Amino acid sequence: MTILIAGGAGFIGYHLCKRYLEQGWRVIILDNLLTGSMEHVVALSPHKHLVFIKGDVSDDVWLKDERLVGVDRIIHLACPASPVQYMRDPVHTLKSNFLGTLHLLELAKREQASFLLASTSEIYGDPEQHPQCESYWGNTNTMGPRACYDEGKRVAESLCYAFHTKHQVKATIARIFNTYGPHMQPHDGRVIGNMMLSALQGQPMVIHGTGKQTRSFCYVDDLVEGLMRLLENPKARGMAVNLGNPEEISMLELARMVQELAGVKNEFTFCAARQDDPAKRCPSIQRARDLLGWAPQISLQEGLQRMFAYEKARLTRKEQDEGEII
Fold first, then answer.
1. Residue 149 designated active-site
2. Half-sphere exposure of 156 (CA within 13 A, CB side)
3. What pairs with residue 115 in β-bridges?
């Protein structure tokens, strides 16, 4: 079996590729390395069934690559996922979501492959329904700095629905809520990574707004399990399914958990809230429970401990490497 993972050199992509390779799949990574890491590709390269194609989903040059003939599954993760990244080039973010999804769906149609779109909880915007279930249409601002990502994912979902209904493409949508774990890119702007780096480096933790805004965090291993189940479930085709952890926590509570884990008491630095930043974010995962028999298994405490150990070891290696260079 062959699976194409667009964005496979990124954070979630790396973990997905690793799982599929360990199960004996032939895995093709398509990535422009804009936010993905070549280090991830190198780490996976000992697997003999790995193929890497450097390409951007927003153009169609890579579609002619003969190695894509016979692809059985496609997962579309190819889009910057943190505000810092996707706001850096909003036009490219939109193109990755619209043109990228269009090109990958055309490939799915051509190869009769099952298709999974990695959508996002951001399509709910600043929600007026809490927790958010899949039938909620959202509350988004089309003219704000987050619109390139929010609206890009919304149109990508519409493309999946259109290809499913018009061309019978086996397309499914995963609405991914905040995810964390090892191999997140340092300084990519996501809150858990930022807080851990601050704690490890003895720097103040930056809190946007009051810190009372809430999120729910899913450990990456749990998310990967949900994505793999969702891709294989025929009952989910043409549907959107929330994947996330329904346990809600405020940013201040999260910061204190990270401090306790690191054994530090670094200061908090409060700054202005980000424009259109949701006040609350928490998934209803009843559909995932019913369709997939899926729910997160790793608690926030355990997941943070795992990530902290990884980040501490990574920083130690970096310091040792820099010392050798000096």
1. yes
2. 37
3. 74, 171
Which residue's entry shows tokens 């422009």? 32
Which residues are registered as beta bridge partners of 16? none
Over the stretch 85-130, which tens digit does the pLDDT of each residue have? 899 999 999 999 999 999 999 999 999 999 999 999 999 999 999 9
Written as six digits, the tokens of 25 are: 């799949």
Distance of CA 16 to the CA centre of its chain: 11
List the one residue out of 118, 122, 145, 125 whose CA is nearest residue 10: 118
* Alpha carbon separation from 96 to 155, 277, 303, 316 (Å, rounded): 11, 22, 30, 35
The model's pTM is: 0.94
Letter string b/e over residues 263-282, b meaning 16 or more CB atoms within 10 A of that residue's CB: eeebeeeeeeeeebebebbb
Please report the beta strands in 57-199, taking only residues with DSSP state E, as ranges in sequence order. Answer: 73-76, 114-120, 171-176, 179-180
Catalytic residue among 149, 161, 219, 310: 149
List, in order, residues 6 or more apart from 325 with CB less than 8 Å away: none
Q: Which tokens is 164 given? A: 């499913």
Measured distance CA(243)–CA(258) in Å, rounded: 24
**Peptide bond just before 283 cis, omega within 30 deg:** no
